[in-house]
Amino acid sequence: MSIHRIINEAISPWMKQEGPDDDIVLSSRIRLARNFSSYLYPTLLSQDKAKEICHLVKHYFEGSTALPNAPFEYIEINKLEPVEKRVLIEKHLISPNLVESVHGACILSQNEQISIMINEEDHLRIQALYPGLQLREALTEANNIDNYIESQLEYAFDETIGYLTSCPTNVGTGLRASVMMHLPALVITKQFNRLIPTINQLGLVVRGIYGEGSEALGNIFQISNQITLGKSEEEIIEDLITIVQQLIKHEKSARDALVKTSLIRLEDRIYRSLGILKYGRIIETKESAVCLSDVQLGIDLGLITGLSKNFLNELMILTQPGILQQFVGNQLTPEERDIRRASLIREKLSSKNN
């Protein structure tokens, strides 16, 4: 494995796998925030100490065969080109905050299912990604990594409070569990906005495709926990799973209702979007996301055949600005990106039909 393969292959290996309820739940993610007891938090670290943490963590993963998904790749963020950083963000392997860190680094597993960010807001952000609704499996994977590190190095931990973190909202378990959900029918029927207050009241938050402060492109929403203190990891996970399962039921019900009461309008919407993707010459990010969402809904409902089940997941990644530029190998203006995006989508659709 090399950084060149990670950057140049837009689709992570784990994304090509199937998972439970993956027609609605695109992915499950577990992220654990951890700090070492003998170091200041990253915002207060000296450059030398920040480097020391990077080398320390690298030492325990470099050449290690004690963990699944080995080997691991160590990547220093400041050695990457701007477009390469953006690609890693668009693949959900690092956060925008890590890019801003002077001595940020990450460790990636071979299948890109495990990502360990170093010197982000906390010393470590341990992340596990799974296709479909697999939060329990992702938690087990993240805990295996967490236990391995903790067996080598001492964490900042309080017997009463739990794990100590830079941001008070992460204190306790340090756990952020989230699922990426495709909810087009709830959006089309204008039900989703009415559900958000209820979701928030249950201690969960709804965000866009790239987390806090990001936009919900293509009817894709990230649902995650807000509470990390006062509940166990298992309780947080089970609460989130319960809400996600309810959202799955609501989405399926809304899809059934659209088919029964508005089939012609629904087909018109879906096939218009397919036409734009097939024949459009200039497609902006937002427009492509909307059209891809419509076509994916058509695939899920059996109205469109011959396209892969993970059509949306694949093309939503491939058509992001950073990956487009990496794919072409040049810096592109916004208009050039929109032209290349349209061309890439046409190529992909043409290859599926051959």
TrEMBL record:
PROSITE patterns in the cross-refs: PHOSPHAGEN_KINASE, PHOSPHAGEN_KINASE_C
Stretches assigned to the Phosphagen kinase C-terminal domain: 24-254
Key words, A-Z: Allosteric enzyme, ATP-binding, Kinase, Nucleotide-binding, Transferase
InterPro entries hit by this protein: Arg_Kinase, ATP-guanido_PTrfase, ATP-guanido_PTrfase_AS, ATP-guanido_PTrfase_cat, Gln_synth/guanido_kin_cat_dom
Enzyme Commission identifier(s): 2.7.14.1
One term under GO cellular component: extracellular space
Activity regulation info: Appears to be allosterically activated by the binding of pArg-containing polypeptides to the pArg-binding pocket localized in the C-terminal domain of McsB.
Leading EC class: transferase
Pfam (any one): ATP-gua_Ptrans
Keyword Nucleotide-binding assigned: yes
Domain of life: Bacteria
Residues the entry annotates as binding ATP: 27-31, 92, 125, 176-180, 207-212
One annotated GO biological process: phosphocreatine biosynthetic process
Record motif RDXXRA motif of the pArg binding pocket involved in allosteric regulation, residues: 337-342
Substrates-to-products reaction catalysed: L-arginyl-[protein] + ATP = N(omega)-phospho-L-arginyl-[protein] + ADP + H(+)
Similarity section: Belongs to the ATP:guanido phosphotransferase family.
Entry function: Catalyzes the specific phosphorylation of arginine residues in a large number of proteins. Is part of the bacterial stress response system. Protein arginine phosphorylation has a physiologically important role and is involved in the regulation of many critical cellular processes, such as protein homeostasis, motility, competence, and stringent and stress responses, by regulating gene expression and protein activity.
PANTHER family named among the record's database cross-references: ARGININE KINASE 1-RELATED, ARGININE OR CREATINE KINASE
UniProt-recorded name of the protein: Protein-arginine kinase
Source organism: Gottfriedia solisilvae
Taxonomic classification: Bacteria, Bacillati, Bacillota, Bacilli, Bacillales
